[in-house]
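[09:14] KT: can someone run the structure on this one? pasting the chain below
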Amino acid sequence: MKWTLRIEEEHKDIAEIPVSFYHILSTQCGAAQIFKGCGGPAWDIVIRRTKVGNMIRGMYIEGGWKEFILDNDIEVGDTLVMYYKGRGIFHTQIFSYHGHDKTYVDIPVTQTIVTRRRLPLNAAELELHLRQMQAERPEPSFTYIFDVRCIHQGSIVVPVPFSRMHFSEAGQCTVVLLRHRSKQWCAELQIVREQNMITSCKLSNGVNMFYEHACVVAGLGALVIYRQGYPLLFELLLGSA
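[09:31] RB: done, structure tokens below
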């Protein structure tokens, strides 16, 4: 579930949670976390509620919210899309006053910031983590680390050796399913051949909906599990810190 928050001056220190989320968050008061994108740096926050009798009169995000705003250079007029993922976890997308996506913009990290936010896995740690995930699964799979280009293009490049092993009989364009947790989307498996040999392969036309739903940012990784059937199914298991 998500809501949109347009930043005003009063939101720099505290954020009010919409009434429609009271019943969802009523048991989640106290310590929580807010992530930049999905799997990016995290800030510790606090969910506070006010009550009159047994009725909730207000719910707010406090604690590290101010640091989250400062560290990400969020200004009055910017817009946050807040995704609640359960168990006190929030993912965010950040848009400027002009509508530009700021989620992927790296803000210089000072020593002060490092001490109050949890950094994501570095590339080597992430690759090791994904390999460990892969070793625990018997299904055919490949690891993938998302970059800015694939996110902007709405695609996932399938490794050529994997493609040749599993899709030698597939057509140039095949409708498939993508699955992430309980959600799934139609997409296309697009194959390019030269002299009947696969030279490139990617998932496209639907991947962008997965990116939006999961708040995927550059540097995040996933284990992509392939399951045969009709249609073909690709399950994405995100790997993060």
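[09:33] KT: thanks! The two ends are 22 Å apart (CA to CA).
[09:34] RB: yep, looked fine to me
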